Amino acid sequence: MDMQFAPAPLVTDPRRRLILFFFLMTAMFMATLDNQIVSTALPTIVGEFGHLERFGWIGSAYLLSLSAVMPVYGKLGDLFGRKYVMMTAIMIFTVGSAVCGLAVSMNTLIAARVLQGLGGGGIMVSIFAVNADLFEPRERARYQSYSSLVLMASGAIGPVLGGTMSDLFGWRSIFLVNVPIGFIALIGLAVMLPYRKPHRRPKIDYAGALLLALTTTSIVLATDSSELFGALVSPQSIGIVAFGIVCAITWVFVERRAPEPIVPLQLFRNSTFSLLLVMSIMGGAIAIGMVNYLALFLQTTTGLSPSAAGALFILLTGGLVCGSLSAGRIISKTGRYKPFAIASLTCSAIAFALMSQIHAGTPIAFIGAIMMLHGIGIGLAQQVPIIGVQNAAPARDVGAATGSVTLSRMGGASIAISIYGAIIASQLDKVGVSIPGVADIKQLTPKMMASLPEASRQAVADVYAGAFSPLFMTSCAIALIGLVAAIMLKPVQLPRAGEAKMPQPATADAAE
Known about the structure:
Blueprint: H1 14-49, H2 55-80, H3 82-101, H4 106-134, H5 137-169, H6 173-176, H7 178-192, H8 206-223, H9 225-229, H10 235-257, H11 271-287, H12 291-301, H13 306-334, H14 338-355, H15 364-380, H16 384-392, H17 398-430, H18 446-450, H19 454-488, H20 498-501
């Protein structure tokens, strides 16, 4: 269907539109907050349930299921109308949160996180879609930027809120708080959002979505195989790798024939698209994938409480907001995004190289400064892959191209989380020293650490600082791979015309 005519906005009363937008932002805040809020409480959860080797899964289970269902939700909204698809997503997410809060073991918690992700992915996609129904294109750009601010705010508030809540009310409260918020968002949308029957009947590429999800999951399981099967190379891990390769090859064949593929393969003919996708994967690995590990690092090597560790994240987010706002302004003035891609990944590579040299007694101010540098780095290129891809893709594929960037960022994050987890676990397993007062180093909660005698606490901090050094070197290498891709980008200048550059909503796959 051709989008030459703009359909009338879904709600004409501006007051009602603002109230609706508020409910949408509440749902989005809840879904994005969930990845960040858990970060500072994770060490406490691991202390209660044990299984440090599954630490990463609390993050990657959520991200994996979130990215697996994202492409399908966009099409489901086109098929059945946004209202009920969005409400179903919020309902799944709320139920998942309740199960997380009542979890009795690490495995229950991970399973509940998968359920939360199945809802969270739908919330993220539907919000951009409903925004497109609510606002005219000119207004839309402004409201999309408010949405990005909410995303950033959840990044800033998440770790602080998570740390404070788990200090005051225990870690279960950070999940259970979603239940009333979810109900409020549900009732608000049920009452305020009109139902618009969709005209278009898209063909959903279910096979493509499933194969892509299975491929990513195989990679994550393969990187985790030393924890799951006791050795990095074992019959099970080889089986998983082989299964992943078969899925990937089948996926390419399916995408070639699908009438509306999730990722149109002809996009890869343009080197800009491929390079930006590499940048996006690496960006997800060092930005989203790192959050939980930075929180663990701060609480183990510096002995900060969860809420104090959360406060340090304000510096990271402060840097992110500064970087993002200034880059956005300069890119819209000059039309050049390549310099920002290079600057961004250089900042992050330097930040991680410095991080890898930190030992247990390093002043907090120095660590804060590095986190701010890393934040500025992430911020500078936050918009780059999306702006670049939307400019490089033909008009009919803009939606799919934008979706590919989001998916690759989430995929990069969930794979990186597994790699980081494997590094930490293997480093801690090598530690032969027994520390007085510590039965099992992997089961220490921040509170238990604070009550240890000074010498033992210093010993634990040293062990963790040693374990984190190779992890930060790995993320520095990831940033350098991204940097090579950024340097290889063509020096494109974005066209002046507003319509070519305007970020289109995540449902531009309707614009065929």
